[in-house]
Amino acid sequence: MNPALMVVSPCNVIACCISNTHNVSFILYTPVAKNWTSVNDNGWELGEVMRLSLIDTLPFVTIVVAYRGRKIRVRNVLVDTGSATTIFAVDMMESIHLVPAPDDVIHIVRGVGGGEAVFSRVVDYVQIGDCPLSDFEIEVGGMDYGFEINGILGMDFLIRAGAIINLREQQIEFA
Fold first, then answer.
1. Reduced to 3 states, what is the DSSP secondary structure of residue 93?
2. Are 83 and 154 in contact, with CB atoms under 8 Å apart?
3. Contact by Cβ (8 Å): 141, 118
4. Among 75, 116, 135, 143, which residue's Cβ finds the most Cβ atoms within 10 Å?
5. Helix (H) or strand (E) holding 50
6. Mean pLDDT in runs of 10 for the chain (175 residues)?
7. CA 174 – CA 86 distance, rounded (Å)
């Protein structure tokens, strides 16, 4: 058993954590750092600190989006300081009835991967860990980039939330 990484499950059994787990809540104790971290449906948290998941060296988080009383947990959301705005895949937003309306204005957003048509909408809130931002404007588009990505958390959210990204510790926290 790796002494630097032990998991205490709800039944108080100690086991070695060697693979990804999904839809499980448990507590992680890291003796070296003497930190307790909980895992819940919103991802890894330590108070207002959220663990980043690195996928192909890119930082991803899980967030919650609420719209007209409905909410969805969105996994594989890229934390992107190079993106001015926050955008989500239309496929994900359909489940909370956030779909284009006839009076929506379609915008073209451009990035390294090219351009994409999106519409904007103010949602009830966008939440990462314990940090919800109410009445937040998001963009919704196809997001077909050739790899699994359900959203981009842009600078509009990161600045408003007071995000502090610690890449050494692979954490994001909010001031």
1. helix
2. yes
3. yes
4. 143
5. strand 49-51
6. 39 35 40 38 56 93 97 96 95 95 91 85 95 96 87 97 95 90
7. 17
Write out the E strands in 1-57.
6-8, 14-16, 26-30, 35-40, 43-46, 49-51, 53-55
Mark whether 76 and 140 lie in a shared domain: yes
Domain span at 25: 1-40
Identify the sign of the CA torsion 16, 17, 21, 27: positive
Is residue 37 a contact partner of residue 27, using CB atoms and an 8 Å limit?
yes
Residue reference for tokens 């594989």: 76
**Phi, then psi, of 52 in degrees rounded to 5:** -90, 140
Name the residue with tokens 């190079």.
82
For residue 144, which of 108, 175, 105, 116 has the smallest C-alpha distance?
116
The pLDDT of residue 13 is 33
